[in-house]
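Title: Prediction job returns without error message
Component: structure pipeline
Severity: low
Priority: P3
Assignee: unassigned

Description:
Job completed but the reporter wants confirmation the result is attached to the right record. Sequence as submitted:
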Amino acid sequence: MRRKLIRLLGLLLLLTAVPVTAQDEDSAVCEAAVTDAVALAQQNCAAANIDQVCYGSGVVEALPRYLTADFAFEEPGTILGVDQIEAVISQARNEINDTYGTAVIDLSAGLPDASVRLVLIGNAFAANNVVPAVELELTTNIATRIYAEPSTDGEVVAEVDADAPLTGTGLVGDGLNITDETWVRVTSEAGDGWVPALDVTEDYLMASLAEVVNPDAPALAPMQALTVTSGIADRECANIPDSGVLAQTASEAVELRFNGLDVVFNPQSAVYVQALPEATLDLYVLEGSITTEDVTVVEGNVYRAPVGPNAQVSAPGAEPTAYTIEQVQPLLVTADLFPRDLAIATGAAVEQAPQTLADLFGSGSSEADAQPASPEAGAEVAQVPSDATPIPITIVP
């Protein structure tokens, strides 16, 4: 199996929670930086399409999946295919020029139409954990059969003659010591399926194919598996969001893998994702519902699962709990970046909670009457000191 070890060091801005400093900030300037960034990202990313990443606004960097001389992701409005990207990093407000980092990612998630939009807000990081596909041109050394599964008990898809051309895309079994339990996934003019590795001439190349862990599952589409990290409780003024990744799905159910956790988004759902190494992965279900680890989390609740030093989920999460509307209400400022209305369900009851952008940024709002969000009572939320040192992340797709 081909594996790629990626070391991403020194992401201080992404892995440090910045304390709220609303009292020391000009709230109007702070809020304007975010609303202007959203408007700019909406304009810059209007042409973004399926399986593409767009540089929305502020300071955003992208790490290339392949080292090529023509890779460039340096200006707002730049759009690249997700298969070219190893990771996307956005940064929160730059006080010098009052910019704010946003990036937009449209994913097909293996479906024919764009089915999920991800928006990086502030100090956020999203790494592409899908191993690049390796294809091998193969030739059968005897007449053989293509099976629907890696077993001679499976349905026969097609029969092929000796010297038939096949394209290998994956492997089950030992690719170094080929036995009758080693199977290669193939595509061909005759049909797609599985053939015994002993029945192809190029068996010495098998080890270069990616291991197929679940033969019944479809191959992951680009960036369908991600590692996300973000700031926690880092908003600089009351009425802007904390850093994170906001995901909204369309009319079909979608499966994504966040930090090693498989998450099924039910149709027309919206989820706000935050994570910090050696803390938790937090999934705030704003609209609709998600299913993970046999737990269904409905709108108005947050699901938290512990993560290790590499930001991967390390154990099952706790029972979902209700969030407070103050924690998520400022996300409404990003509404224009989504293809349909962004709905936010009320979690725990909060008196006179703002429900519209006009309420949120109206003339009546101020630092005195709109303070930053506070976690619900009893919730375990990571608290990170402002002088925290950078935490290296090792990601093994």
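Comment from assignee: result matches the submitted record. Residues 1-25, 348-397 have pLDDT under 50 and may be disordered.
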